[in-house]
Amino acid sequence: MRVVSYTRAISYRLKDENPSNIIGLQNEHIQQYIKEKGWKLAAKYSDRKFSSEEMTAFNQMLEAGLAREFDCVVMDSIFRFGHNLTDAVSVLRETFYPIGIHFVVVQDDFSSFGKSVSAITDYFKQKRMAILGNASWTRWRALEKEGIMVKSHLSYGYLLSEDRRSMIIDESVAPIIRNIFQWFLSGMNYQTIADRLNAEGVISPQKHMTKVYGREPNFIVDSIWRGSSIHKLLEKPIYMGKAVRKIGGVDTVIEVPPIVSEEEFLKTQELIPKKPARAITWKIAGVNILNKRIYDKKTGKALMCMKSPIDPNDRVYTLKKNIRYLSKEEQKKSIPYGVVMGAVKEALRNEAALVDQIDEILQTEQSQDYLEQQLQDYRKSALKLVEQLNTVYEERMNLHRMYEDGRINAEELEQKEDTCQVKLMRIEQQFALIMAQVEDQKTAFSRINPWLALYRQIEVPDELERSHIMQWVDRVAVVDAQTIEVGLKQQEWKYKLPQEWLTLRRDG
Prior knowledge:
Layout: E1 3-8, H1 22-37, E2 41-47, H2 56-66, E3 72-75, H3 85-96, E4 102-105, E5 110-111, H4 117-145, E6 158-160, E7 167-169, H5 174-185, H6 190-199, H7 205-212, H8 227-234, E8 242-247, E9 250-255, H9 262-271, E10 294-296, E11 303-307, E12 315-319, H10 328-332, E13 334-336, H11 337-362, H12 365-404, H13 410-444, H14 450-455, H15 466-472, E14 473-480, E15 483-488, H16 491-494
């Protein structure tokens, strides 16, 4: 494998340090990584000038990659690759990866080898969030250390003090909060209180906080009072003067001016109904283990598991009663429980046998030849997209030359840049689709195929349980007493394999 390295003096990461020996430090980290892997370095590309515009070696590396002169590029930090993260995505994920050139980021211990497009995309998303969140997070922590509060710390009924180091009561709504506690203690329920507030034209907490506190909501503002909002309000200890704030990731109680007395608040908590513990019903005799899994194919209606009208010790699957558009004869139809379970178990055993058969095929040269032929088709499509990318990149370079020569103005440059960006986005989407298909095919023809992994060497018990159904069965459709269609899970991965492989051989 031909491996190259890329280093750069300048970094685009916020507050990143650039010591005089930064190139040497990067090379040291890269060499150590390569040594551990047992690789040999074929070439080094390095932009040593402390200028964000200096990209000579970067462009040379890009040209060499497009010419397939190496198979992998290793860097110390993703923040030292290109002008910005967009450059890194464009070159590493959208140009190199589709043509089989991988990349390694030493600091993050991240390698594209064996990674899907989605995994690589997730990696870049995380790095982008790190850039975007760095400034705001730093500012947040600085304010927190200084004891300064922000608007997100506020609850309905409170404002920030002038120095923003404490909360003060919002006297415009404090009487409303006191009324809510008094009304509840007098016997009014949540919804009655909400209805009264709405009738009196009192604006909702969300609407009030958006209007008075200047919050920009990231959700649809609830414009009316609801029973649920009354319930939540009555449970908040802040109204008796005990606010809970996360400081350094730990819930910390801070003192604030109370709106109601502690006695009044605690008495309210005693009257709030406690949520009953959820009853466990799966162990009840006669439970429908196919609940929300079994349907009548003709009507699409769910089937119920009921006691047999013939044998009280037996069960049947039947349509719900009182389905008006069905005849009485159709309503009487029922399928014995044992018949349905027999069909499910047979489907599972057949699936396990087919998986064993496919495992044998995947070990043959026929399997690898079939996969390679499909991958070649995908590679051809990817190379065509690479050519399209290069065309758009050249178009952008010409635009900038025209702008520098005075042949177009800034407005024309911006308009044409937007057009190029749209083209690039479309090509990128096509890339993503192709690479997803490539990864899916590689997975489908391997032992980690989710379908193979699920049904390989399964043991179908004599008595199926709910856990078995949840693990293996997607849907059971009853056509009639003789025809039951069992739909199993992970079938989309099954049908990525050649259709001719999916016929179960019957020995003997």
